[in-house]
Amino acid sequence: MKKPLYILLICLLTAGLTSCKKWLDVKPGTQVLQDEMFSTEAGFNQAMLGSYLQMGTGLYADNLTMTTISAMGQNYQTTSTGHPLLEHAKYNYAAPAVKSAIATIWSNMYKAIGGVNNILDHVDQVKGVFLGKHYNLVKGEALGLRAYMHFDLLRMFGPMPANGGLVNAIPYIKTFGKQVTPLSNTTQVIELCLKDLDEAEQLLSVYQNIIHNSGEGVDEFTNYTRNHFNYWAVKALKARIYLYAGNKVKALQYAKEVINSGKFPFVDRSTFNLTANQDRTFSTEHVFALNLPLTKALVDVRFRLDGNTTFQAQTFYLTSATMNTLFDVATGGSTDYRYLYNIKTSNGYSYSSKFWQDGITNLQLSNQIPLIRLSEMYYIAAEATPDLTEARTLINEVRVKRGLAVLTSTFDENIRMQEIAKEYIKEFYAEGQLFFYYKRLGTLPVPRSAVTMTAQTYVFPLPDTEIEFGNR
């Protein structure tokens, strides 16, 4: 029996994309037959596109970057009554707004995982429909996304990695269907992630280019490699996972492979002198990013204090004094590109403009949500290397490319970790990575938080529906 696949959400998100409109024209309404879609290479392309877009809805354009996770990393001043992230920043998991956010994260992540599992359930059955390297790309990307999303779920719903390897955390779901999957512990989830990534690395090794092309006759599926879970994204995620698991040797190995690839040049300062198409997210350094058509609408209500008064009540900001402290403005940080060009001020408050879409017409720059950056590989390598001199060199390479002076004074283990922490705060502002950084290191309390934290404060509770219907 043919099973229907509902794609209304995907096509609403991509209403401006000709390919999606043509796809829907095959059948009346918004329903297509699953086996019909998975009978062509183009159908698999559309299914992968849908998976990437699903990762935006309530997730990587929202709770997992700019809102919930960034509030928990204390990126914003949230203490005013009625602030939409007030309870999130207090880790008040019983508050209705926080419970709703967590339920959305859980539900939407597993929906997106279900999408890639559906692709993986079909891809080996019809290998003959693919031309050239396309089978490798589709299957490799799907495996990589499955590992990526499960690992982020682990970072939220699992215990601190240092003291919870055998504690049940999340289900690692590998099939498309409604059956209940048992919970896996941290060690098991990491092993399953790495197993998927090992296979993805082998498959994606056939295509290691990082390109951005446009125009007629270009394969749209490989048009902008940074917006696909590419070969180098696999290695970068391995570096992230191995560091989380405490395996610094492997973390260093994979981080250096990405660094030494030469595929991801640091942003050129000249971009900020342009009147249009400023590269505010440093896109040349994106190892993996999502391109999400709704980014401007989401950003304008979150990161604008000047101008339209309707934005101001919802804007995420810090006092300028706090922002200046985070960027070490009094001790040379005023030249930092991340501060100089991406932090705006208004009446004593400061906020980020890195996601602004103003003046952007270049498709390479528009609607980009970075999920893995080149700079993170430098920070991972700097933390993982046993050589303090090498660690300082790695940190300095990023500092110089951000317009800062090199570190020349005494450099010991404490200073190494202090400098890496400073870099995470500045580099990943409003991107969600800071909370995960603090959790990995077991930082108690989180800097700039007034909450008395324990190890359990870092653990998201399972949604009520998962406890009830999953028999947890």
UniProtKB/TrEMBL annotation:
One of its GO terms (cellular component) is cell outer membrane. Keywords: Cell outer membrane, Membrane, Signal. It is found in: Cell outer membrane. Residues 22-243 form the SusD-like N-terminal domain. Its main location: membrane. It comes from the Bacteria. The keyword Transmembrane does not apply. SUPFAM superfamilies: TPR-like. Gene3D superfamilies: 1.25.40.390. Residues 304-440 form the RagB/SusD domain. PROSITE patterns: PROKAR_LIPOPROTEIN. It holds the Pfam family SusD_RagB. InterPro entries: SusD-like_N, SusD_RagB_dom, TPR-like_helical_dom_sf. Belongs to the SusD family. This is RagB/SusD family nutrient uptake outer membrane protein.
